[in-house]
Design brief:
By secondary structure, the protein is of the alpha+beta class. Helices cover 36% and strands 36% of the residues. A hairpin with a 6-residue loop joins strand 1 and strand 2. The radius of gyration is 16 Å and the shape is globular.
Length: 169
């Protein structure tokens, strides 16, 4: 993984007490917190493109109407996979773009709601672009949404690290 991309990711100290780190991949780091009544998961990821043009094109495709339709189709497939793998009927209840304050030169946010039997699983994402870099936070929660103020706090940390990592470009 590119050192700049890794420098943008959330760390255990960022997410607070009670979260356990799950095995990080090359481009993400995940944390989970679970009790009998609630499940929370926090993830961050990043990518540094070779050029600003490549990053801009990726951003344009991903945040366009066509990009949203593609993401929605992917989430429908994911719901079917959950049904198969977990044995619990899962559907995509909604997928929409939601407002978010600007955290980087380009910022977008999405909410996905899956229904698993009688339980809602809510995934909120904030994606950010700064020059050649893109970074994101994902939060998953059941049965209600992860606190928005807390996701914004975590996203500001990632945005700040992205700005720092890309300084001088």
């Amino acid at each position: 993984m590119h050192a700049r991309a890794k420098a943008m990711l959330l760390r255990k100290a960022d997410v607070g007490p009670g979260f356990k780190a799950s095995k990080p991949s090359d481009d993400e780091f995940d944390f989970e917190k679970e009790n009998e009544a609630r499940y929370l998961a926090v993830s961050s990821g990043s990518e540094v493109y070779e050029t600003k043009t490549q990053s801009a094109e990726s951003w344009r495709r991903g945040t366009s109407v066509a990009g949203m339709k593609c993401m929605e189709a992917g989430f429908r497939k994911l719901a079917k996979a959950f049904t198969t793998e977990l044995g619990v009927r899962t559907t995509l209840a909604s997928f929409k773009r939601v407002s978010v304050p600007p955290l980087a030169p380009a910022t977008a946010s999405y909410r996905v709601v899956f229904r698993m039997a009688e339980i809602s699983m809510i995934m909120d994402s904030i994606v950010m672009r700064n020059g050649r870099a893109q970074a994101w936070t994902l939060v998953f929660a059941t049965p209600s949404a992860y606190p928005r103020a807390e996701q914004l706090r975590l996203s500001r940390i990632v945005a700040g690290r992205m700005a720092q990592a890309m300084r001088g470009e």
